[in-house]
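// run 5 | inverse folding | seed 20
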């Protein structure tokens, strides 16, 4: 059998080797030499375990010993091989005992890409599950924060500046707003936060952030900001974009405990067939590495810190993954960054070398010049209009909200502005009120998710009978999440929680004209 080995298997596309009783590779076909990317024929025999990744050798040794004893496993066995140049591949192995059980024949199939796909799929499912959990928690907190901020606004109407209670109320409101920012982090991670995108000049945004970043990174780290010329504009939520840069700057600071240089660089970058993405940039584990062709504004955040080991580089965007000591970090920083970048329509990549530093590259789609001009004109007009709006009004509003504190606050706020308010704690009660007062109701303000019938389902039943009634949906989830479920073909008005008294009154005024 050994003498006839080359005759039968040299042309096989599958790697085939023979091992002697000591576990040495004594023969291998050309496919095996190609698989391992080395010329072994002149060096044979060699121990098969020499090809195995160091920490997997005990497991591989146990499998080989069982195979030689005749305990051939029915299913394929997985081995991790370390090839020249520190290239690791994963192979699926099938065994056969031949030549009076003196020779173990192994068929090896490269399944590296398959295993990577399985890992990425499992990671994607985990991210989706954790994202749903985070989004649900954030939704519930937004209901609580809406009530807290709203009642603070009501108290401030009775205790204006100068009142001895004013400072205490403002402390409560400010801390509630801080909590709202934490909730936005959860929603950003789950990609369900409400963004307020507008056209931005990144050079101006980063220039405004420079002083804050300098205070954050400390005196032992030098900050260099380099801006390209005519890089263009991007469409993004400024607050969320600033959070991305701050998160990356803080991570860079923590990676440079002995000091160093933090460089933030902007430039114009075009992706096309002749000008692809730099090869050293790695995408997050769940991200498709194919970036769409087009013009981008590139923001690079580069540090000279300790770098990120290759073994964990693809894990850094996972929620709650952190290399910091327990209590020093939540592990949400980079997952939040990833969520914001993706919801903005951009891409994020990372390149890192141990003891040299890390480069995070953010690609934002560039906005056309005519859009920039139109947005500037619209923003000026909107600012002038908002400064002259009277938030008081008349008319009947149906308020549908299952959270009692939110409903009480919103009802009092609207009554203070002059409106007549009918309150319902569920969709079924709201339908009954419409049957009694439908002709009087001008606006329905309804929560989206409620026990029993949802807000959109309720509206679908009401609108055929009262087609002229205006509708405002309120929700702790983002507007785009609502659109995905409700559909974009129907017109609607939306107000995200938590909202202030002024935001609620402004929305009513906007809808009623």
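// decoded
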């Amino acid at each position: 059998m050994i003498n006839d080995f080359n005759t039968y298997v040299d042309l096989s596309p599958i790697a085939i080797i023979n091992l002697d009783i000591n576990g040495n590779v004594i023969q291998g076909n050309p496919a095996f030499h190609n698989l391992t990317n080395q010329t072994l024929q002149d060096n044979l025999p060699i121990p098969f375990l020499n090809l195995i990744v160091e920490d997997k050798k005990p497991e591989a040794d146990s499998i080989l010993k069982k195979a030689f004893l005749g305990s051939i496993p029915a299913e394929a066995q997985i081995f991790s091989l370390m090839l020249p140049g520190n290239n690791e591949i994963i192979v699926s192995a099938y065994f056969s005992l031949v030549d009076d059980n003196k020779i173990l024949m192994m068929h090896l199939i490269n399944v590296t890409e398959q295993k990577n796909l399985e890992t990425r799929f499992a990671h994607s499912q985990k991210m989706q599950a954790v994202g749903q959990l985070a989004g649900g928690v954030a939704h519930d907190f937004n209901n609580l924060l809406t009530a807290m901020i709203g009642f603070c606004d009501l108290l401030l109407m009775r205790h204006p500046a100068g009142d001895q209670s004013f400072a205490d109320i403002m402390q409560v409101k400010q801390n509630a707003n801080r909590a709202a920012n934490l909730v936005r982090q959860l929603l950003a991670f789950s990609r369900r936060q409400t963004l307020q995108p507008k056209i931005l000049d990144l050079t101006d945004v980063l220039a405004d952030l420079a002083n804050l970043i300098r205070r954050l990174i400390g005196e032992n780290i030098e900050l260099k900001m380099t801006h390209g010329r005519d890089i263009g504009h991007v469409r993004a939520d400024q607050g969320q974009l600033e959070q991305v840069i701050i998160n990356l700057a803080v991570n860079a600071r923590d990676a440079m405990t002995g000091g160093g240089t933090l460089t933030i660089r902007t430039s114009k970058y075009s992706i096309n067939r002749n000008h692809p993405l730099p090869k050293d940039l790695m995408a997050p584990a769940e991200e498709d590495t194919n970036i769409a062709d087009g013009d981008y504004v590139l923001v690079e955040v580069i540090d000279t810190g300790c770098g990120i080991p290759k073994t964990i580089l693809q894990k850094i965007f996972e929620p709650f993954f952190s290399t910091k000591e327990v209590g020093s970090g939540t592990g949400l920083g980079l997952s939040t960054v990833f969520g914001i970048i993706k919801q903005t329509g951009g891409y994020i990549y990372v390149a890192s070398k141990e003891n040299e530093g890390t480069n995070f590259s953010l690609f934002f789609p560039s906005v056309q010049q005519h859009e920039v001009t139109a947005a500037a004109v619209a923003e000026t007009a909107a600012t002038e209009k908002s400064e002259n709006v009277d938030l008081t009004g008349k008319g009947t509003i149906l308020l549908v909200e299952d959270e009692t504190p939110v409903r009480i606050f919103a009802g009092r706020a609207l009554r203070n502005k002059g409106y007549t308010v009918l309150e319902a704690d569920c969709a079924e009660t709201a339908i009954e009120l419409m049957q009694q007062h439908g002709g009087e109701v001008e606006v329905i303000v309804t929560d989206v998710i409620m026990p029993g019938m949802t807000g959109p389902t309720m509206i679908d039943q009401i609108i055929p009978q009262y087609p002229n009634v205006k509708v405002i949906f309120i929700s702790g989830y983002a507007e785009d999440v609502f659109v995905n479920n409700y559909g974009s073909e129907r017109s609607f008005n939306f107000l995200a929680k938590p909202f202030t008294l002024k935001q609620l009154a402004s929305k009513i005024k906007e809808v009623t004209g």
